[in-house]
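Figure S7 source data.
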Amino acid sequence: MLRQHLEMRAQAHAGLRSEPLGPLDVAVHYAYVLDTTAELSDRLATTLDASERARAARFHFAQDRTHYIAAHSLLRSCLSQIAGSRDWRFTIDRFGKPEIEPPIDEPPLRFSLSHSHGIVACAIARGFPVGIDVETVGYDLPFMEIARNYFSEREYEALLAIERTKRAESFHRIWTLKEALVKAIGLGLSLPLKEFSFDVDPPTLTISPHIDEDVAAWQVVAHAPTIRHHIALAIRRPQTCSLAVSWYEVKLSLLGAPSSEQVHQQPPD
Ligand SMILES: CC(C)(COP(=O)(O)OP(=O)(O)OC[C@H]1O[C@@H](n2cnc3c(N)ncnc32)[C@H](O)[C@@H]1OP(=O)(O)O)[C@@H](O)C(=O)NCCC(=O)NCCS
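Tokens for the predicted coenzyme A complex:
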């Protein structure tokens, strides 16, 4: 009991959600990665299972390995904070979408994970399919070319219409929204990207009749924790309800580590 209490306090100290996750809640946690030392990465890797550690070991670049470890360790900490510590196991469907196996709770916890240069994020909801994408703005990307190839005509035209200096940011906002939807639906890139469109301010979805999705069922939310980082979330829920989305910035260095406050204080058991 005391140990559990200490663990909960330590995780909340790291920035994890400390309230229970209700049926209409979505918790989004994100963490910056670039100052992650090799020592911290090794410590976080101890929270992964053998297959995740094996996958981490296969990355050629240390930076990719660090992002992978950070994202999966963050996910495990968030799930344990919400549903209690356990030996989390995952299954991957034929499109690559991961789910918790066996399902936990009813309605079952669902999640989505994303990593980009310098930042990782995960979203957790109960029952509803959820997709998250995070991107770091790359000003040197050939983004108009990418937009011409992957965005709908409407999105491309909207980008062309805005001032050049603002295009990179708008491109990433649209990109994250599209990716979040793709990940929530879970069909990967077999979903035709030009057949749905986002307006960014506020995020609004339009879906062509060629895709069998009810646009009213989608709640889409965007958040830019800094001017360089964009996070988007897409959730399919009953049309009649609006979900409460909360955002948490997590300090990776404090994940799983006893806080100095705890070291010096004994909470009541
Ligand atoms: C599979 C895909 C979701 C990967 O997205 P990404 O932006 O490259 O990478 P992210 O870091 O955001 O997401 C990767 C995570 O998504 C999850 N994922 C993989 N396949 C998935 C799927 N079919 N559905 C939902 N989630 C999936 C995994 O958890 C993966 O992390 P992991 O490999 O560490 O477990 C897919 O959308 C993709 O390949 N996109 C390529 C980019 C592109 O062309 N985008 C066009 C948008 S306009």
